[in-house]
Amino acid sequence: KYPTQFTADSGVAYEILPTISLEVAQKVQAQTGLIIPFASGKDQVDYIGGRGHFGELRVGKDKAGKYYGIKILQPNQEELEEARQEAKLQLKLSKLPHLMPLVDMGECEDH
């Protein structure tokens, strides 16, 4: 199970949303253009934006209400340093065109 709260290295606190309501999905779409699909008649969905080798991409928001994609990594001990180096490189390269920016990073104590 993933955490629902996360404080990044910058000190910014994020809420990780394990489920998305229709209202939140509409806000996410208005802010980011991301369309979160809902089955007919459903008003909540367990949304995973993607899965990769190290973990999952979830929707999160900061205290100001801005939505972000939060990549939750769960590498094994051997992969932990590789995951840190990948995040640091992506942070450095985030300003280049055609690359998705990495806004912040950090580690959870319990994960």
Keywords:
two-stranded antiparallel ribbon; 111 residues; alpha+beta; 5-stranded antiparallel β-sheet; 26% strand; 2 helices
Residue ranges: pLDDT <50 for 5 or more in a row?
none
Residue-averaged pLDDT = 83
The amount of beta strand, in percent, is: 25-35%
The major pleated sheet works out as:
5 strands, antiparallel
| Counted beta strands | 7
Envelope shape: globular
Count of DSSP H/I helices: 2
Radius of gyration: 15 Å
How far apart the termini lie comes to 9 Å
Instruction: Tell me the series of helices and strands, N- to C-terminal.
Output: EEEHEEEEH
Query: Helix/strand/pairing class, anyone?
Result: alpha+beta
What helical percentage do the residues reach? Answer: 25-40%
Please render the helix and strand layout as text.
Elements: E1 5-7, E2 13-17, E3 20-21, H1 22-32, E4 44-45, E5 50-51, E6 55-62, E7 67-73, H2 77-93
Antiparallel strand pairs: 1-2, 2-6, 3-4, 5-6, 6-7
